[in-house]
Amino acid sequence: MSQTPEIRTGEVDAGGKSSQEINREIKELIAAGEKELRVFHTEAQHNLGVAILSPVSVTFDGSVGYYCGGLIDGPTIEVRGSAGWGLGESMLTGTIRVQGNVGNSCAASIRGGSVIVHGNAGARAGIGMKGGLLVIEGNSGYMTGFMMQKGAIIVCGNAGPALGDSMYEGAIFVAGEILDLGNDAVVQDIDDADKGFLREKLAPWRISHDRRFKKIVSGRRLWNFDKQDFDLWKEAL
Amino acid sequence: MCGIVGYLDKCGNPDTPLGDILYRMLTTLSCRGPDSAGVAMFGNSQGDWILRIKLGEHGDFSEKGCAVAEGLRKLLAVREHRVEAEYLRAVVAPVSDVSDLIHKVEGLAQGLELVSAGTRLEIAKQVGSPENLEGSYHIRTFRGTHGIGHTRLSTESRIDLSHSQPFWARGLLDVATVHNGHITNYHKLRRQFEGRGVRFYTENDSEIIGLYLHDRISEGYSLEEALRASVDDFDGSFCYLAASSESLAFVKDSFALKPLMVADTSEFVAMATEEIALRATFPGDFQTFEPGTRQVYVWAAPQQVMETLDVPNS
């Protein structure tokens, strides 16, 4: 029988404390060797759990404000509530999972890792993504995947206007309705590899992959300037 | 960057501690706007009109207030009046012509400004923090059904009482707005309005929202239609709230460039630029959401308060 490693739990009561104080307590617990942390009375405070650089698990028992989990490398963060703007901004690796809705610009400029949103997302979800995965179980707002460069976005509900506007690379999958496509975003047929990818990425979160997903990629007409495409450029700029 | 808040009690309970609710929400957002703070609140109507007149920018105005009140008595039936810091608050018998009232009231002395008029609307604003506002006007004791509030970070115009928000939709009874953002075609719109003889009191682009709504409503639009039309008629990044005695509404621009978090529960609707204001003010477990681009939503204020008071004065 293998021995189960001892897991120490650490708790932080965020009530009445500033973001700096809460984050300092989180960092101190991690430095002391805690692997699983629970933060309660979060009351939508900003910048919670930013810049955590070790593979610990942090649960925010409530809603969080702006930039939760920004600049992280490695941790698993769960938010048992909703999140404000800029969730997980510029993260390198790790996982952020939100039970509720998220505000604008979730997973902005992430380079890796996964952001899982079980509710709906506001505008510009996955803006400038440079890798990683963004899953939105509900609907996504205006300009989802704006200027994304790499990685994948999976929207299980409907997508708002200007989907994938000016995207360079990467792929967006949408199961529901697309209100309209952004500049130079085109719909592509999905193949077996895509189906396998969707199954692999959605199954761990118990989200159904057995749906008719559409795949949106860059039309690449904005990659290089061509006089013949002047009208397209005029529109895009 | 400014902070805006809105609250509506869905039961229409006129005894709701509205002032305290708005104050608590504003306090959490004061870091978004340290320059000034203000509220527009809807209290209980006795059928008369409540006028709030700015007496001056800074100083002791008790004498001037009494003189203005005397002048006011010669114009119309004044039921009661009192001087509160920079304002004269007067309850007067209704008149037929609001623009004529503005003209006459502001003609009573130098530097007067009719800050709000209505059967239920009362606007109180002050330079500085929400604590300053409370210190001058004791807004926390105010009871009513719904209201809006603002903490201001001035970006393009002066910091003084006149330039503070909320703005009354001047000329339109019981309508006020608070705004976070920039109306970038403000100067163009202002020239059009001025060409038609509309007077602007400030250089603040937010002032135009109420004047625009007044203009649209006088063309025959409903408040909701006017709010919807404004999404296309205003350029820039904006999110604003409008409140009338019958409703509370939000309007979002075409790009969702300004935040707003909304909690719509069975008991109340509360909105704030940051969710932190909602969580700090309301206990319990409730969901919030961020409205998308070009969204306009109007909640009707329960009307039982109005119905009981709609009996005409005989």
Please bin the fraction of helical residues of chain B.
25-40%
Distance between the termini of chain A: 64 Å
Q: Compute the number of helices of chain A.
A: 3
Largest sheet descriptor of chain A? 11 strands, mixed
CATH uppermost class of the domain at 101-236 in chain A: Mainly Beta
CATH superfamily of the domain at 101-236 in chain A: Glutamate synthase, alpha subunit, C-terminal domain
Largest sheet of chain B: 6 strands, antiparallel
Q: How many domain units of chain B?
A: 2
State the order of secondary-structure elements of chain B, H for helix, E for strand: EHEEHEEHEEHEEEHHHEEEEHEH
Largest interface: A-B, 26 and 16 residues
In percent terms, what proportion of residues of chain B is strand? 25-35%
Strand neighbour order, sheet with most strands of chain B: 7-2-8-1-14-13
Class by SSE composition of chain B: alpha+beta
CATH class designation of the largest domain in chain B:
Alpha Beta
User: Stretches of chain A where pLDDT falls below 50 for ≥5 residues?
Assistant: none
Give me the strand/helix succession of chain A: EHEEEEEEEEEHEH
Give the number of DSSP strands of chain B. Answer: 15
Q: If you consult CATH, what is the topology of the largest domain in chain B?
A: Glutamine Phosphoribosylpyrophosphate, subunit 1, domain 1
Provide the fold topology.
The complex is a heterodimer of chains A (237) and B (314).
Chain A lengths: L8 E5 L5 H13 L4 E5 L16 E5 L11 E7 L13 E6 L15 E4 L12 E7 L13 E6 L15 E4 L10 E4 L3 H11 L11 E5 L11 H7 L1
Parallel strand pairs in A: 1-2, 2-3, 3-4, 4-5, 5-6, 6-7, 7-8, 8-9
Antiparallel strand pairs in A: 9-11, 10-11
Chain B lengths: L2 E7 L8 H11 L7 E7 L6 E6 L7 H14 L2 E7 L2 E6 L5 H9 L6 E6 L2 E7 L2 H8 L8 E7 L14 E2 L6 E7 L4 H10 L11 H12 L4 H11 L4 E7 L2 E6 L8 E4 L3 E5 L2 H7 L14 E5 L3 H6 L5
Helix pairs in contact in B: 1-8, 6-7
